[in-house]
Structure formats: structure tokens, C-alpha cells
Amino acid sequence: MRDEQNTVQEIGFMLIPGFALMCYASAVEPLRAANLLAGREIFRPRVFSPKGEMVAASNGTLVPAEILPGRGGRLHTVFVVAGGHPSSWDYPSVFPALRALDRDGVRLGGISGGPYLLAQAGLLEGRRFTLHWEHAPALMEAFPGMRLEQARYIIDGNRVTCGGGVAPLDMMHALIAAQMGADFARRVSDWYLHAHVSSASEPQRASLAERHGVHHPVLLAVMEKMETTIEQPLDRTAMARFAGITPRHLDRLFATHRGATFLAEYRRIRLAHARNLLQQSTLSVSEISFACGFSSPGHFSRCYREMYDVPPRGMRAMK
């Protein structure tokens, strides 16, 4: 690692076709502002793509790129930036290049879906990391037991990962502060009207209460438990016992605050998880049905079609 303050840091961005332009801009623009505010070159961004050709963002914007080198050279850090669906990221040639950079001491990072590719390359074993919340279910199904955390960004030694959207602004604030000091990093954030710099541990998503419009503390605890017991759902009696209330009280809470039954709400949460896996993972419909707590693929398909007016395979074909 080359952390001397007067050394220009070359920061690479491996853009996977279909990457979100906002994620890339949120990461690269603070580097440009830092150079302007310092009156000299501190960071030198470089752009790579799997084939070393022009790479298209999800909105169609084309970005010139070069091929990822096989050796570290002057590179200080390389971020993999990916968006869309992990099931469509088929770039095995990238993995040996990333491993070679790691051997040469280059710091590696991932933005939005980028950490998924780092996991595929075997570069996140034993590391704390995060990624965009949308990709989390697919990653945990594909790589069970990994140290995935829900955070805006995580710096774990020479691994730097963050969620999507504007989360890279917060991550870059921390990296610029480490290189140039907190006061300078604050000036860069002010340049982009980034008045509230979120800490690494702040959540990526709105709270459960905000997402579901629920504020009853017992009901919130039950719904959170539902989200964490998708593969092995608890029955009504067990969930009531968990919440410290009677089954009849549990029924009243769902009827009053959700306008639905306990079973219907639980099924909705499980089917929403299944929809995410259909879009984000390569798991078969049968595997997804069992991962979401359904007794059989046929039962899962019927419930899914009732909820979304399309069978699971039809949803996957629409990706």
C-alpha cells in the first residue's frame, strides 16, 4: 500500500456492463473535487472494463475503458462496480486479474453489486463486507457463512465495500479523510452539498417501521422475526410465544394494523423474498421454493401466481 500524502494514488474502477451511473459518479466525482480543491493531482482515476472496451451504464451512457492489467503497477485501489442482476454477471476472466492485483498488494473494493464478484473470485473469505441490500439475499444463498453485514460501507484492511446509490459519497469521504485529513474531506463533501456524511454503520434502507408503515412495537418485533425466519417459518402459536402475547392478540394486531391475517402477511414477506431471488440469483424455482419455506414447488408456484399474476418462471423470463 502506498499511503504517503504526496504520492498520487491511482484509483481504478472496473465497470461491469449495466453498472449504475449514480454509483460510479458518487465514487469518482469526489476524487476529481479533491484534486481541484488541493490544486494538484492527489488521485488519478482509471476506468477498466472486462474486455477493455467502451462500457455501457444501465441508462445507456457509454464510458471509455481499458483492460484491467495483470499486475498492480502503480494502482493503489481497484473498485468493482456492478448493478442489475448477479445471474447475468458472467465475466470469469476478471477473477484471475483481480487475484493478481491482490497478490501485488493492490487494495480491492466493491460498490453496489461489486462485492458479489469479489466473493465469486474468493477475495472476501474471512472479511467483513457489505453490498447493495438488493443483492444480499442472492449472495447469502450462493455463499452461505460469509461475513456479510448491512452497512453503508465497510473498510476491513485492504478490502473496501459499500452499498449502491449515494453510499460511495460517504465511503469516499472516509478514504479522502484518511489520505488528506478530516478538514479537507469536509471541504470535498461540502463541494457536493453533502452536508450529512453518514457513518459506515448507518443502514442502507429505511427502518422496518418506515417501510411497512407500522409503529406498534410488538408488531414490529413480529414482522422483523418474519423477515429472519423465511426459510423455516414459525407457526402462529410459536410466533405469539416469541412476542409474549396470545395467538388471539397476535391476530388482532395484524387485523388492526395491517388489514391482513398473520398467515397472509407472512406469505407476502416470503413471496417478496422469492421474487428478489428469482431476479437476482441463479437458483432454480425448486430451490427458491424451499429457501422461502414452501412445502413444494407446486405450492410455491400457485401462491406466487396469486400474488404477482405471473408464475415464477414467467417472472424470471421477464428479467
How would you state the average pLDDT, rounded? 91
Q: What order do the helices and strands follow? A: EHEEEEEHEHEHEEEHHHHHHHHHH
Nearest-angstrom radius of gyration? 22 Å
Number of domains: 2
Question: What would the keywords be for this entry?
Answer:
single chain, 319 residues, alpha/beta, Rossmann fold, Arc Repressor Mutant, subunit A, 2 domains, 7-stranded mixed sheet
Could you please describe the fold and organization of this structure?
With about 325 residues, this protein is an alpha/beta fold. It folds into two domains: about 180 residues, Rossmann fold (3-Layer(aba) Sandwich), CATH 3.40.50.880; about 110 residues, Homeodomain-like (Arc Repressor Mutant, subunit A, Orthogonal Bundle). It has 14 helices and eleven strands. The strands form three sheets. A seven-stranded mixed sheet has the order 5-2-1-6-7-11-10. The chain has a two-stranded antiparallel sheet with strand order 3-4. The model has no long low-confidence stretch (mean pLDDT about 90).
Give a topology summary.
Blueprint: E1 9-15, H1 21-38, E2 43-49, E3 55-56, E4 62-63, E5 66-67, E6 75-82, H2 94-103, E7 107-112, H3 114-120, E8 128-129, H4 136-142, E9 147-148, E10 153-156, E11 159-162, H5 167-180, H6 182-191, H7 208-212, H8 217-228, H9 236-243, H10 247-257, H11 262-280, H12 285-291, H13 297-308, H14 312-317
Parallel strand pairs: 1-2, 1-6, 2-5, 6-7, 7-11, 8-9
Antiparallel strand pairs: 3-4, 10-11
Helix pairs in contact: 1-5, 1-6, 5-6, 8-9, 12-13
